[in-house]
């Protein structure tokens, strides 16, 4: 006989149904009361007294599930719905069964414990401030049941949906030069990196080639290293690695021996006259990971991630045993912290043309004679569409009336 | 597309609509027990529900209508709903055609029938006389006397008769996605029984659905007693037809009566006859679904089915099989029963669990894009 499932304790201290104060939690209890909705059963309520300030409704749902499910979803699953008192984030649904499988569209961390258990169902693809306008408790329960039923069938991720990212996104973008690693994947690229801050908080990082630099000369020096993984199947989104050992473990899935690869790169820099100057810099690891939809499928998309490694190439060489020439496979000493970043590439003429749909591209030389009220518009729009190599000729002075435009 | 089976909640009565992927409509029994009183109004208005089905399918009738036997709880209202060929009075108004009528031989030969049973017998006799639109299930010899009295040679009707232990002609799972195997009525019972006992001479079929190379089997065990079921098990095994006893969906015999399990009701759980245990436990497939076409299971002892002791036994087997036990008048809840729909597709059989319209708000049917869950990291 199949064993009865074990469930994790829901978070918080138990309270009565009538003690709930959060409106959405109260409404969920109202519709879950016996006799209202089929396929649902109300179990208990809890309150989180810690900094989360949330209320929890625990219930069971019946799931439409065939005899041979793709993922091990049961016909009945126990769910804890967590409602924040300030309603600042979407109500969270936690699957309380202890052996609830790691399936697609599970959040890598639940909000309540900041851990991967109990599993947190990723129910919505809209931001909560939009979703809020139409959120109802019935639709919430139905979305949970649908999420479970589709996952049981292995169909939660629709055929026409884009592939899932392999890692949870990093909030900070890194803008890289458009033609980075143009000299081959093995060629390290020295970069100058600076932050773009808004109200004291760094919102993005911009990297330029050292040879280009920034006009004001500010910025920190880094060296970028390109790493290419083997194609892997998308599906479960992993936690973003924040240390070198975590990244090594993650890249095993992409068939890459990260530490071995870094060791051989650093080895070659150390003995190369042209590159030994790189050894004093901290590294940016740029990792490209091709993805497929299913095990046998073709590469459909690639994820690119960047990680700033908080140690210089020299220090890392020592830790990897490059200096003493050992073939140690472990990183010696404590782990090395990584700052994960979302990779963007700077706009190039080719990319601008592709984005504007101006193909085939025109790369010929164009001179704009007169860049006044009209000419400047033509010139600006065509430049931004990646069309032509431009020389503008206008002897005039730029004066306030040059700004005036009528848009029809 | 998938195969679909619908059991209609009509109290202690049977109506099962089979819709194979090939678009056919096959109906097993018809009992419209819907009415105005407190109890009967919970039942589904069957004629309206089936009429809706036909309209949606753009059809004016069914490919097959089978009457497993002629008791009222399997035919109630049928003479008002179907177009019958034998008399004009059953052809007036908007009636559903029956391309092929399936009946056990008792529906031809039995005497002393009254009311709707007699009308259906007249229809079956008419079609057999005409030699079309009918299939009779029995040992051919059982029809010999009647055919002789009608001056019809048995040989001329041989291809309209299917004996137990045979595949029903014209449908093969490899081609049509569905096939039927006849288990009953079987011959030796009828030889012994001078008096025809309807429940034992009734139609018992195993339907096999094929989807994506996998088979899912529905066992329509009708009102069979435990003795009849034990006979079916013994005969099937004797003829090497064990595979024809396998089931993924079991229409529980006789509205969850203990008499279809064993001789004694039992205090809490009915103890079935050994062959019935073998049939339900060994031939039941993983995730198997029991359907009790009956009133809600009572909490106290009752004379009439459903019997709570029998239900307790079925529930235990469902647990063993990691399957389900459903009662038509309790689905999805006894205060408002809805037709019980079973879908057969690549994941096997599953009971449709849709919250009835009217209680639903807005849902998004798209899967969410990851990375935008409730927490920042989600």
Explain this structure to me?
- The complex is a heterodimer of chains A (about 400) and B (about 375).
- Chain A is globular and about 80 Å long.
- Chain A has helices at about 25-30, 130, 135-150, 245-250, 260-270, 315-320, 350-355, 375-385, and strands at about 15, 40-50, 55-60, 75-85, 90-95, 105, 120, 175, 190-200, 200-210, 220-230, 230-235, 280-290, 300-310, 340-345, 365-370, 390-395.
- Chain A is of the alpha/beta class.
- By secondary structure, chain B is of the alpha/beta class.
- In chain B, the strands form two sheets. In chain B, strands 7-6-5-4-3-2-1-15-16 form a nine-stranded mixed beta sheet. A seven-stranded mixed beta sheet of chain B has the order 8-9-10-11-12-13-14.
- In chain B, helix 1 links the parallel strand 3 (about 25-30) and strand 4 (about 60-65).
- In chain B, helix 10 (about 225-240) crosses helix 11 (about 275-280).
- Chain B is globular.
The largest inter-chain interface, given as chain pair and residues per side, is: A-B, 63 and 48 residues
Q: Could you spell the SSE succession of chain A in H and E letters?
A: EHEEEEEEHHEEEEEHHEEHEHEHE
* Assembly context of the chains: heterodimer
What structural class do the secondary elements of chain B suggest? alpha/beta
Overall mean pLDDT of chain A stands at 84
Q: How many distinct beta strands of chain A? A: 17
Distance between the termini of chain B: 34 Å
Large-scale geometry of chain A: globular
On the 0-100 scale, what is the average pLDDT of chain B?
90
- Distance between the ends of chain A: 76 Å
Counted by DSSP, the helix tally of chain A is: 8
Low-confidence stretches of chain A: none
Instruction: Tell me the strand percentage band of chain B.
Output: 15-25%
Can you give the helix content of chain A as a percent range? Answer: 10-25%
Spell the H/E element sequence of chain B.
EEEHEHHEHHEHHEEHEHEEHEHEHEEE
Largest sheet descriptor of chain B: 9 strands, mixed
